[in-house]
Design brief:
By secondary structure, the protein is an alpha+beta fold. The protein has helices at about 5-40, 55-60, 65-95, 100-110, 115-125, 135-145, 295-320, 325-335, 340-350, 350-365, 370-375, 385-395, 400-430; strands spanning about 165, 170-175, 185, 210-220, 240-245, 250-255, 260-265, 275. Helix 2 crosses helix 13 (about 400-430), helix 3 packs parallel to helix 7 and helix 10 packs antiparallel against helix 13 (about 400-430).
C-alpha cells in the first residue's frame, strides 16, 4: 500500500473514532425510538397482539385526533407567520432608533423563560377576572371608557314595593306621579363598597310646585333598625341613577340622581310613570373569555408569538446587518420611498433568512405541547388540542393506549419529515452558490 493510501485510511479511522460516540447517541436517542415507535404502532394497547394498520385507521375515526390535526394546521399557518412578521418589523425598526439594542434585549428576553413558566404566566394573563387577568383588565378598561359599567347591577326593589318589573328591563312605579308630591324609589341589594364614589347619605326630596321630585336610595340600614319605605339616617343615596318619566311608551323627561339620591323632573313628568331603565342594572362588563372554546387556540398562539418573536428578530437582524447599504441608498436616491425600499429590496434580500426562520418555527410548532397543556384549562383542553398533546393524553393518560399513541407519534414524524427535507434541500442550494 502506498504511503498516500495509508494516510487516507488513518484519517478515515480517526474521523470514524470521533464520529462513533455521536453515531451511538444518534442511534440510541433517535433511530431506535423511531423504529420502536413504528413497530409498537402495529400492536394493540397491550403490545402482545399485532393489529396491522388498525391503529392508523383509528386515527381517522377519533374526533379528538381530528380536532388536534385541525388545530395543528392552524398553528402551522398562523404562529410561524406572525412571529416571523413581527421579528422582521422589529429588526427593521430597531435599526432606526438609538435604544434599539435595549429594545432587542427586552423582546428577546422571553426566550430565556421555559415554556412551562411562560404557560403559567399567560394562564394568569388570560384570567377571566379583570382583577387578576391583565388582558381582561386592559380590555375592560378600554370598554368602560366608551360604555361605562352600571354601579347598581344587583339593585332590586323589595317584594310588594312601589316598583314593579318593567317588561323591557328595569323597574317602573305602580302609579303615575304628581307634581309637588315627592316620590320614593327604595331599592336594596347593592354592597356598600360597590356604591359610586361621592355617594352621600340619602335625604327626603323637598316638594317643588310644578315639578316632580323624589329620592332613589338604598332602603337598608346596616345593623338593622331602619324603617321600610322611609329614608333613614345613614342609608346611602343612589348617586347617578337614571330616572325616566314615561307616558304612553315615550320618555317625556329624564334626570340623574344627585349624590344624596334626590332628583328633580320638569312639569312634563306629571301624570307619567317613573322608570328606572335597565341600563342602571346592567351587569359589569366581564371582558373576553380568552380561554373559552372559541379563543383558546389564538390565545395560546399569542403566548407562543410573545416568546419566539425575539428569536425571529435576532436572526433577521443578523441578516439585515449583511444587506449592502449602498443598494438601499441607491434606491432612495432614485426616488423610492421607505415602503418601496422595504418591500422591493430589503425583503427580497432577506428571503433566505426569512425562510430559515419560518421553517425553523414550523418544525417547532408541529411539536408544541407544554404551552397548550399549561394554558388551556381542562374544560377546554379538547378544543385547544394539538397532536403532541393528544399523543401524551393517548399514550400516558388514564385510558392509555400506547399502540394508538405510537401511531400518532409516527404521524407527527411523517408530517415533520417533508419540512425537514425542504430545509435540507434549501441549505444545500445555499451552500452550492
Amino acid at each position: 500500500m502506498t504511503p498516500a493510501g495509508s494516510e487516507r485510511r488513518r484519517r478515515r479511522a480517526v474521523a470514524a473514532a470521533f464520529l462513533l460516540p455521536a453515531l451511538v447517541l444518534l442511534g440510541a436517542l433517535v433511530v431506535y425510538p423511531i423504529g420502536f415507535s413504528v413497530h409498537r404502532s402495529l400492536y394493540d394497547r397491550t403490545g402482545d397482539r399485532p393489529v396491522g394498520l388498525d391503529n392508523y385507521a383509528a386515527l381517522l375515526d377519533d374526533a379528538a385526533i381530528r380536532t388536534a390535526l385541525a388545530n395543528t394546521a392552524v398553528w402551522v399557518v398562523l404562529a410561524p407567520a406572525v412571529a416571523t412578521a413581527l421579528g422582521l418589523v422589529f429588526a427593521v425598526l430597531t435599526e432606526r432608533v438609538r435604544w434599539g439594542t435595549a429594545f432587542k434585549l427586552v423582546v428577546f428576553m422571553p426566550m430565556a423563560i421555559s415554556m412551562l413558566a411562560a404557560g403559567i404566566v399567560f394562564r394568569l394573563v388570560y384570567e377571566q377576572d379583570p382583577e387578576r387577568g391583565v388582558a381582561n383588565a386592559v380590555w375592560v378598561g378600554v370598554h368602560d371608557t366608551f360604555a361605562p359599567a352600571s354601579a347598581f347591577p344587583r339593585a332590586r326593589p323589595r317584594p310588594d314595593a312601589a316598583l314593579l318589573p318593567d317588561p323591557g328591563g328595569g323597574f317602573v312605579t305602580r302609579t303615575p306621579v304628581r307634581a309637588g308630591v315627592p316620590v320614593l324609589l327604595p331599592l336594596v341589594g347593592v354592597p356598600p363598597e360597590a356604591l359610586p364614589d361621592g355617594t352621600r347619605p340619602a335625604r327626603p326630596a323637598a316638594a317643588e310646585p310644578g315639578r316632580v321630585t323624589g329620592t332613589a336610595w338604598q332602603d337598608f340600614t346596616r345593623g338593622g333598625g331602619g324603617r321600610r319605605d322611609a329614608v333613614d339616617p345613614g342609608e346611602p343615596g343612589y348617586a347617578g341613577m337614571r330616572i325616566e318619566a314615561v307616558r304612553d311608551g315615550t320618555v317625556v323627561a329624564s334626570a340623574r340622581a344627585r349624590p344624596d339620591g334626590t332628583f328633580t323632573l320638569p312639569a312634563a313628568a306629571a301624570g307619567a310613570v317613573l322608570r328606572l331603565p335597565a341600563s342602571n342594572f346592567a351587569e359589569p362588563y366581564a371582558g373576553v373569555a380568552w380561554l373559552g372554546p372559541t379563543l383558546v387556540t389564538p390565545a395560546v398562539i399569542g403566548a407562543y408569538v410573545w416568546m419566539w418573536a425575539g428569536f425571529a428578530m435576532v436572526l433577521i437582524g443578523a441578516g439585515l446587518a449583511a444587506v449592502p447599504r449602498e443598494l438601499l441608498e441607491a434606491a432612495r436616491v432614485d426616488g423610492a420611498n421607505e415602503w418601496q425600499v422595504f418591500r422591493r429590496i430589503t425583503v427580497p434580500l432577506l428571503a433566505p433568512v426569512l425562510a430559515v426562520v419560518l421553517v425553523t418555527l414550523v418544525i417547532n410548532v408541529m411539536k408544541i405541547f407544554d404551552l397548550v397543556f399549561v394554558i388551556a384549562p381542562g374544560s377546554v383542553q379538547d378544543d385547544a388540542n394539538v397532536l403532541a398533546l393528544q399523543l401524551y393524553r393517548t399514550a400516558f393518560g388514564p385510558d392509555a393506549d400506547q399502540g394508538v399513541g405510537s401511531a400518532i407519534a409516527v404521524l407527527l414524524l411523517v408530517l415533520v419529515v417533508p419540512v425537514m427535507l425542504f430545509n435540507i434541500r434549501r441549505m444545500r442550494k445555499e451552500a452550492s452558490r
